[in-house]
């Protein structure tokens, strides 16, 4: 990510200027937006040629993508973009609700000024990126919002679990509506409601709001899955 981009959208996750980070970001964008679909093969040699770098640099980027769950390495067969089944997505969604509902119930009692300012800035960054129509950056800002909030829950061993869960859920949902832009308007007001709930410092209110937030996004992207997971309930159990 360029310095200019980081200055314009300060809540975007920071990356160093290493070439492997640039390769990782480019491939991650392609996979997240379904421009590289599940089952696509990625060869170190062809990617090194495309990105004008060494195969070692490509290998480093692919390792990070593997840790994210975006690719899998199959020995001599090569590296393949993973697929996310409906069954896996449903489990991930339940896991996200469990983690974030428990997390916000703890975090709401521990929000400091710096965290609140970061969350508000992320809403502003989201609106600016939305105007650019960049779904990938929107996903990155949404990820930053939720991880910053979860950070205040003081559950460090679960942070990488949530990060991977969020990324996979984002990828699955975006793939359901590939090429559509309706969802670019979904999050700012919902995130403001979450910040307002945090100000109340009521764990149960925050828990229920987070569960509804996740469920409403499932409904927007995949109505059939929403009905399957939550039935006719107005909100999922947190």
From TrEMBL:
The keyword Transcription applies. InterPro entries: GntR_C (IPR011711), TF_FadR/GntR_C (IPR008920), Tscrpt_reg_HTH_GntR (IPR000524), WH-like_DNA-bd_sf (IPR036388), WH_DNA-bd_sf (IPR036390). It comes from the Bacteria. This is Uncharacterized HTH-type transcriptional regulator ydfH. It comes from Pannonibacter phragmitetus. Keywords: DNA-binding, Transcription, Transcription regulation. It holds the Pfam family FCD. The gene is ydfH_5. One of its GO terms (molecular function) is DNA binding.
């Amino acid at each position: 990510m360029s310095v200019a981009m980081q200055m314009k959208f300060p809540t975007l996750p920071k990356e160093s200027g290493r070439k492997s980070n640039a390769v990782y970001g480019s491939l991650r964008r392609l996979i997240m937006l379904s421009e590289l679909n599940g089952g696509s093969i990625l060869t170190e040699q062809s990617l090194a040629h495309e990105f004008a770098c060494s195969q070692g640099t490509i290998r480093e980027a692919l390792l990070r993508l593997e840790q994210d769950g975006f690719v899998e390495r199959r020995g001599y067969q090569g590296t393949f973009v993973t697929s996310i089944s409906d069954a896996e997505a449903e489990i991930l969604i339940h896991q996200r609700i469990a983690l974030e509902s428990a997390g916000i119930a703890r975090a709401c009692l521990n929000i400091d000024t710096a965290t609140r300012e970061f969350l508000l800035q992320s809403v502003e960054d989201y609106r600016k990126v939305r105007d650019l129509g960049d779904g990938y950056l929107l996903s990155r800002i949404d990820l930053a919002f939720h991880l910053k909030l979860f950070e205040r829950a003081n559950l460090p061993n679960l942070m990488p679990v949530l990060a991977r869960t969020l990324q996979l859920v984002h990828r699955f949902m975006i793939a359901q509506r590939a090429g559509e832009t309706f969802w670019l308007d979904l999050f700012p007001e919902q995130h403001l409601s979450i910040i307002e709930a945090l100000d109340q410092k009521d764990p149960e209110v925050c828990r229920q709001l987070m569960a509804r937030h996740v469920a409403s996004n499932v409904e927007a992207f995949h109505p059939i899955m929403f009905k399957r997971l939550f039935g006719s309930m107005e909100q999922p159990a947190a």
